[in-house]
């Protein structure tokens, strides 16, 4: 908690400079939108999901235990749950209206969105959550981020479609130039199927097994205090200009062949 307050203090002191640098760097998007994932990027759904499954298994499961997003299924099996039921238990922990309606916002996300609003930069939220949870998702936005229009909260992944495929389709449809994500596999698909750049918010499930691509940027190892603060730090820094520059990325692609 003390660390979070210190981050807020430092951010308040430096806000004008950080904002000016971030808005200047994001001009490189040439008017393209910013896509933002919801789970573990905008909303810390893992907080309530882990509370729920910890209660079920009678064991304290921490975020650091999730070396993959669906590690909950393996944890359930390792704790005596029938293998046929373990994945269903994991899905029910994540895909729950109570979780989606009540989990806290990710650290730094409100400050990041404040900057985008002030700079008049367009953004929307793209999630591979099942569409039946749209109302619970919108309820959370009404409480936590009330300025976000319902039409800018995009769910609708069809049965059998991967999250990466769904997000790629929406990114292409809505002209997203930069997407903020936490899942490496989905970032890989986005990089392969769209022209968008992807920033990976640090989480335990993306610390390892990274897919290297000139349009994917990893922001270090995971920490609860990171959240969107790491995105703000990067986008307001000198490396962002290189990362978002088509000239630099074209050079990187050429060098890789």
Automatic annotation (TrEMBL):
Look up the record and give one Gene Ontology term from the biological process aspect: deoxyribonucleotide catabolic process
Q: Which GO terms describe its molecular function?
A: 5'-nucleotidase activity
Q: Where is the active site?
A: 37 (nucleophile), 39 (proton donor)
Q: Which family does it belong to?
A: Belongs to the 5'(3')-deoxyribonucleotidase family.
Name of the protein this chain belongs to? Uncharacterized protein
